[in-house]
Amino acid sequence: MSPASPTPPAGADAIALLERARELAALVLAPAANTTDQADSVPREHLRALAGAGLLGIATPARYGGLGAPARVAREVLEILAGACGVTAFVQMQHATAACPLIARGDNEALKERVLPRLASGERFCTVGFSHVRRPGPPMVRIEPDGDNLRLHGTVPWLTGHGIADDAVIAGTLPDGRLMYVLTPLSAGDSIEASPPLRLSAMNASATVSLTLRALRVGPEQVIATVTREQQAARDVAGLLTPAALSLGAAGAAAALLASLAERR
Predict the structure, then answer these.
(1) Are residue 130 and residue 211 in the same domain, yes or no?
(2) 85 close to 46: Cβ distance less than 8 angstroms
(3) In 57, 89, 220, 264, which residue has its Cα 20 to 30 A from 97's Cα atom?
(4) In which domain, by residue range, is 33 found?
(5) Pure H helices in 25-85
(6) Are 87 and 205 in contact (CB under 8 A)?
(7) How far is CA 31 from CA 11, 28, 181, in A?
(8) CATH number, domain containing residue 152
(9) Among candidates 128, 132, 65, 139, which has minimal Cα distance to 102?
(10) Could you tell me the mean pLDDT of each successive run of 10 residues in the chain, 265 residues long?
């Protein structure tokens, strides 16, 4: 994948961004957290608030309409959001720090220019489905050439934000063993079938499903990048810190609550 080199916010801008995240977390997410946990999906007003604060484009390079924040700032924002509402932060992560940066690092410049401004602004919401490519054994999603196009067959076992997301970044295995990432609208007719929402031990409002792909057609204009398994492994290592922000945010909020209760005794 070609590297993206956004200009990170200056120190003062980063501080302002964190303050914006704290304000949104306190005023919008935290008061509704218990209700959101019991809901079928994250409220769309949460996503609109995140978009209005620029937090859906936080890790998208500025040249494509995002804020171009460095990874450490994006992680701190995610930690703040998770401390207020874990499931909203989890859904935001799929779009803001998974899908958008992945597209931005890809090889398809025309695709970046076409979709990233709309994703960064929140006009469209994107999720991801590629954890299965890390599994050993036969590929769960196969990508086969079909003339100038490609066809995807198989099962995406985990996809978060169904019913919220307009698009998804999906990965599959090519005949030569390399991995390909593509962007597809989730409204692809009979070629994509979603399961009922999966019952999880927590975060059921994440609207997580599995997808069955039946000869899903994608054109070359939808291809994000092709990587080897070695490149994929290096990408996985580089991205380990981002999901940890969710746990740190929840743990920090729990510690703060216990401290507050202790002061009242």
Answers:
(1) yes
(2) yes
(3) 220
(4) 11-125+241-264
(5) 33-38, 44-52, 71-84
(6) yes
(7) 30, 6, 37
(8) 2.40.110.10
(9) 128
(10) 42 86 97 94 96 96 95 95 97 97 96 98 97 93 97 97 97 97 93 94 94 97 96 89 93 91 83
